[in-house]
Amino acid sequence: MSADIAPPVPAQEAAAEAGVRVVNVAKTFGSPPAVRALEHVNFEIARGELVALLGPSGCGKSTLLRIVAGLVQADPGGAIEVLGRQQTEPSPGVSVVFQTHNMLPWLTVEANIRLAAEIQKLDRAEIDSRVESVLSVLRLENFRKSYPHQLSGGMRQRAALGQALILRPQLLLLDEPFGALDALTRDQLNVELLRIWQEIRKTVLLVTHSIAEAVFLADRVLVMSDRPGRIIEDIRIDLPRPRDPRTTKALPEFSRYIIQLNRIMGVD
Amino acid sequence: MQADIIKAGWLRATIERVILFVALAAIWEISVVAFNVKPYLLPRLSTVVESIWTFRTTLLIQSLVTANEIILGYIAAVIGGIILSLIIYAWPLARRTVYPLVVLFQGLPKIALAPLMIIWMGYGTSSKVFIAFLFAFFPVVISTLGGLSGTPQNLVEHFRSIRAGTWTTFWRLQLPAALPSIMDGCKTAMPLAVIGAIVGEFVGSERGLGYLILDATAQAKTDMLFAALIAVSVLAGLLYWVVEILADRVWWRSL
Ligand SMILES: Nc1ncnc2c1ncn2[C@@H]1O[C@H](COP(=O)(O)OP(=O)(O)OP(=O)(O)O)[C@@H](O)[C@H]1O
Ligand SMILES: [Mg+2]
Asked: What's the topology of domain A1-93+174-268?
């Protein structure tokens, strides 16, 4: 490679094409008996895209998300590129929200939300202003001094979202963030998630069990097979934005997508 | 309103306790008289109270001697126990070598070591402090290690994902997560430190409540013996209460 001849390509511009690129990723756990969780997984997410990952329970969705987050190592042979970098360990610009909240019981909501920013040694005034905006976006101002155990399940998951948003991530990885909640709360939080995303327009990979949730929120829906998980369908959801629960769910296309996905997943 | 309810509950609990206490005292006093129990077996409560008053200076001085031994041994056990646990936890070599030794020593009846400690360290304070330390040390180590390795895995993963370093993870996650368990160890250790100091005084001493107990027994002064026992109970209760107040500051233990 000669640096003289090659045209100077700014690294950021080259990286700007894809938020996430996963090439031929596989994952085998333990041995023996080895569990083959993922096999030949390939997909790409453009920057600013919201992609939902649907699949049956135990098919490896969380594992895939952890691999993209750099928390779990994939088997050798594949490649994971996140925000233009090879992903081998948790990297800046990526935040994860898991199904069970990760708040420290001895810290208040506000302190929990600050934590990640403090650990990244952000400027104090910067943290203060970010915390204010996160609390207001998530409508948690009145609960800033509460402790996690004093919150409802829905508020706790909202605070967990705040823990991720405080870092202003370029890529947000959400593993069934509202999966443990009742359907009503879940719908409400999805609307809020959509509102936040429409403001920040960052790349999002959202793992979910719910077809309706996936169609309502996503630009694209990736469908995974049973274990070992592969991406068997990649469906673009051409519903107009901004979406809102009443009008979007009333569209005939919305129902068509639902029927199509039901058929793919064999639950019709 | 809320405060009134809490106050009423507290008042009620206090009254209940006082009633129980008075009832037990009355049973003691009356049954000694009624069954004509010999004073050298069980003196009347009033006699015991009388001797507490008569020997109040002695009791106080000997209590301070014993308290001093307990507190020094206890603090050494807590600090030493936490430090050793951290070393064992953080350093694989120590985990492989020192930890099995700790487990081995924990099983040893510490009481059997007391005479040796007197030989090595003499009749003075230091041997009692050391025996109290020996009694209190192991529960602190075991519970600190348990707490450190019991950090919830999802939180460990969360800290990895926000790219926290080893030190940050230790100070901001593992230590606070381990504190409830460490505090449990500290609570278990306190009565053991009391036992250690008294045992040390039994084996070889000319001072302290343990010595007073042996001396009163040798002279068949049972009222004095009871006075010393009550002093030991009060001392142990007070010390435990202090530890419990500190432990209650780790309020997330119950979550
Ligand atoms: N740390 C691990 N060690 C061993 N096996 C694991 C581990 N993590 C996941 N697995 C296995 O990998 C498979 C996929 O697990 P994963 O959690 O990714 O599924 P999932 O699609 O997220 O399921 P769900 O929808 O129920 O959350 C499962 O069979 C699971 O037992
Ligand atoms: Mg999962």
From this structure: Rossmann fold (3.40.50)
